[in-house]
Amino acid sequence: MGTNSKSMLFFFQVAADHCVWYGECGPSKQVPDKKYNCNYTGPPKPLEAEGHELLTELCPGLDYGDRAICCDVAQLRTLKGSLQLPLQFLSRCPACYFNLMTLFCELTCSPHQSQFMNTTIDTKGTTIDKNVVAVQYYIGQTFTDAMYNACKDVQAPSSNVKALSLLCGKDASQCNATNWIQYLFDINNGQTPFAIDPKFSDVPLSGFNPMNNYTFNCTEGLDDGSGPCSCQDCAAACGLDGMCVVMWLSYMSFLLVFFGIVIGAWCFRIWPILDSNNPLSLNADNPDQVNASYCERLGERFENAMREVFSSWGSFCVRYPLLVILGCIILVGLSSAGLVYMRITTDPVELWSSPSSQARREKDYFDSHFGPFFRTAQLIITTPVNHPEIYKPYFPGPDVPFNTILTKAILHEMESENIEATLKAECDSEKTFLGCLWLRTTTTATILSVPQTTFQNSHTQLDRIAEDEFFVFADYHMVFFFLQCTASLNDTTQLHDPCLGTYGGPVFPWLAMGGYDGTNYNNATALVITFPLNNYKDDIVKKGKAMAWEKEFIRFMKNYSHPNLTVSFSAERSIEDEIDRESDSDISTIILSYAIMFIYISLALGHIESCRRVLVDSKISLGIAGILIVLSSVSSSLGIFSYFGVPLTLIIIEVIPFLVLAVGVDNIFIVVQTYQRDERLPDEELHQQIGRILGDVAPSMFLSSFSETVAFFLGALSNMPAVRTFSMFAGLAVVIDFLLQISCFVSLLGESRGHLCCVKLPEGQETKTDGCLFQFFKKVYAPFVLKEWVRPIVVAVFVGMLSFSIAVVNKVEVGLDQKLSMPDDSYVLDYFKNLSEYLHTGAPVYFVIEDGHNYSSLEGQNAVCGGVGCNNDSLVQQVYAASLLSNYTTIGFTPSSWLDDYFDWVKPRSTCCRVNNSTGLFCNASVVDPLCVPCRDMTAEGKMRPQGDDFMHFLPMFLSDNPNPKCGKGGHAAYASAVDLIDNNTHVGATYFMTYHTILKESPDFVDALKMARALARNISTTMDHNVFAYSVFYVFYEQYLTIIYDTALNLCLSLLAIFVVTTVLLGFELWSAVLVSCTIAMILVNMFGVMWLWDISLNAVSLVNLVMCCGISVEFCSHIVRAFTVSVKSTRVERAEEALAHMGSSVFSGITLTKFGGILILALSKSQIFQVFYFRMYLAIVLLGATHGLIFLPVLLSYLGPSANRAKVFAANKRFAGTEREPLLNY
């Protein structure tokens, strides 16, 4: 402060337990209607009697003893007035409001002010009325945090947001304990008359002791009897989630019962069902007979039949390898030849909406009667410049602030950027300009922007002023401040500017501006320019021109730069272009992922004994052959369906190779590793040995493959096109893969026995080998997992995981954040961000009255219109009523009604409807011709609404009339496409009434909007007794989420049912084994939902496809283990489970688990967010959950609850291997 200042500011620290102010002095410079407090450093003063009640009201629970305090009644009244806004929003939570009042009461009235306040004094004036112009307020951090925690969840129902969003100067998500108090004390918030600088600390600071009064938690009641805050306003008051409580109690009950039974069985060994050491009860008295039931004998015969069939087939494939391989190549070639007819669908409508769905049928109806919804390109313009203007109206009144984006300099710069005249695109050797593409017939037609419409895209118009030699009466500010243009053809200011756009209709401020509050358009921080283009659905040439212009638009905007403007933009083709670019960028990641899996497979199949045998033992040729078989099965599936004209999707191309590789690799590892561990029997030839091996393992391969195939084909029953096509292609690919494995691969296995890369080994040189992984599983892993003390822990852990997943399954979000589908560096992400931040209006919604309604009758008109004499429950009235509850209904505005405007247009007192008296042709209101007379006479009948033939006679004229300054009711600009005239303009067909949704940001918002609009349309249909539906462009994409939960449950339940039935049959009618397999797969699926909740993966069509795939892959993890258990002839369940885990577990682990794990980790490197979320995360979860359940939980479950050995199978096995040195089991 200069030495010549008339006032001097100084810091004055007062002694403890003294006041720092008392009473009010001069007016505040920042807030003129408020006053500074007077500096006072004396002791507290008793409060006047008239202030006792006010003090109790404002500061409940604060006991100041004899009421000697540091404020007077005037200060209390000022405090009450300043806190009206927080009172309105925060008093619904008593604890929050009490803590907030404590903050302000201690500041204003505490007799201990000097302990935690330091003042800055203005010495201007007398010594007894010095103004306190600033204060430092030392507040305890503990108090600060507690106050914020009590208030952070309080809702503002009228705004559908949290109260702190209105009281913190920013969104509640960005508000915290300290910046909230800083905003409350900010001198710029319009309520604080002087600067208050809060200092936060729990320890003494600069000689002051921070105010750290007692606070109430939002879950606590107050001393005055007020209860705790509601669950809505206090998340902590909601208590535990009901489902979580139920599952926790269920889990603890299970543990109590389970461990009780386990301990009891361990102590007494009297529980047969849980006694894992209970031996088999075979008839030892007569070795030629066995006491087997009918089902056991039937199962043994079925098992034996499959063994013989596959053994014979395997032997044939080894004996005639050339015939088999050549036949497979021919069939694969013929099938894959269908790829020449391959058609890839990228149209989101075709991907996510069934042709028979309600939204699709309504879209087709709308398109056929009114034309397809227009294409849009849009700019959202902000400015980094922060130079707002203060407009001083000519008439006395408060100054009006205008944000920088609405200053004349910025508007001039925007008008200079004549994008629509600059952009041209070349399509089919023709220059395509915007002018030949944009819409001209709706209320959202032409270029919607402030410069284009409000100022006619004219610098001169923007610079116009109304003035005399003394005053400026009006300038461009008046347009924004009064905004008369939305209601009249010429504004009512002295400028009398034309308010219609170049297309003949108005542009509403809520469409052209953003970032304002309420209806204070002068506070706008963004301007919106929209280019609506005609959508040519079936005209490829015109659609190509539109897309060419959009491509040029995107190129231009990417290169656009302006120091004073920040522009985010999007075009109709932007999302599809970015997805294509994203797919191209991820090709290298996908190729690398598959390359790693292929290399691993090629090397892991071998078991190298010496350098001399490296080319044979490495089994590289078998690995490559296995990979080629997987690729052949995929290409054959794609080709066969392409023959029938079934289109492909990107999901099929990306997911099915992963799925078939998982299934195929597992089976290949089982065949090869079984062969490596097998020892040829005496007098057994190679083709007999491989045939015998195939007879042992092929039933297990057939079980898993056929289960997956049936499950996938049942998934094709889904109404969702993406899920249906994936299931069809996947099911056929798995079938072909299995057939190639048991034919072509078996032949190659026989050939690779002694011939590879020109190397021939002696016939008997290859011997039985056990790999390190097999030895580890057999001697270390399997015995450990099935130890007596480990098994209960495994059960407890996995049941706990299941309980947790069930508790959170209903918390998995439904929908797809469209930002996830964009690359990290996409320009569309900025557009999405600004769309949510600035725009106040959502998508247009049309209430369509289907053909057949009689508009010519009085009853038909009354059921629709909204004017005098119309029904209170008419269509327009019901939509209007819904707009009054926009926070609930998402209907943002009153609908535009062609019928009501037509009635106003045709009135005889109007200058709109005129006809030439001699020719009978229509005369526009701007035409000056004495022969033009009103359409209807000024009679009682003429003043009534037109009915019958009269109604239809003038309606085409109304729909062809362009608005002008003499008649703003012409219907061509607004309604030309809203009315479908049929039968040579003699009847009205389908019509629509348009309004707008409120701004919709997240998937749940769009789904709720669809629900509400349909509910409103159903109610209108009921009252009109005629079908009315709501249509908006996004409905066709979000309708899937109305039934996604049902579709998910149906698809997964059908898949589980298919797996149960197939497993029951192919395991030889082992019903209980099928139950255990199905239960384990169900646990994996439920746990997948738990992972989705933990990892923020929403439920949508993409994740549903992955869940269906998870169901199929889980079969691979489970079925082989269970079948090995059922055919084992060990004496106890534990021994049978250990044997199954040792022999099959190593193949499952080295096959599907390690193969997939390496490839999946590479997906984490993808730049695509959707790849990271829906592929890397979900694939990793599928493999980890499948492996842990199949290799840990399932063997333990079998050791407890596994089915008893099939006596017929055991007897047959002992008989079959009698006299050999082999162990009496299927030695995988």
UniProtKB/TrEMBL annotation:
Keywords: Cholesterol metabolism, Disulfide bond, Glycoprotein, Lipid metabolism, Lipid transport, Membrane, Signal, Steroid metabolism, Sterol metabolism, Transmembrane, Transmembrane helix, Transport. InterPro entries: HMGCR/SNAP/NPC1-like_SSD (IPR053958), NPC1-like (IPR004765), NPC1_MLD (IPR053956), NPC1_N (IPR032190), SSD (IPR000731). Pfam families: NPC1_MLD (PF22314), NPC1_N (PF16414), Sterol-sensing (PF12349). The keyword S-adenosyl-L-methionine does not apply. GO terms for cellular component: endomembrane system; plasma membrane. It catalyses: cholesterol(in) = cholesterol(out). Residues 1-16 form the signal peptide. It is a multi-pass membrane protein. Residues 586-751 form the SSD domain. GO terms for biological process: cholesterol homeostasis; cholesterol metabolic process; cholesterol transport; intestinal cholesterol absorption. The chain crosses the membrane at residues 248-268, 320-342, 587-608, 620-644, 650-672, 726-750, 789-809, 1049-1067, 1074-1095, 1101-1119, 1140-1166, 1178-1201. It comes from the Eukaryota. It is found in: Endomembrane system. PROSITE patterns: SSD (PS50156). Its main location: membrane. One of its GO terms (molecular function) is lipid transporter activity. Belongs to the patched family. NCBIfam families: 2A060601. This is Niemann-Pick disease, type C1. It comes from Neogobius melanostomus.
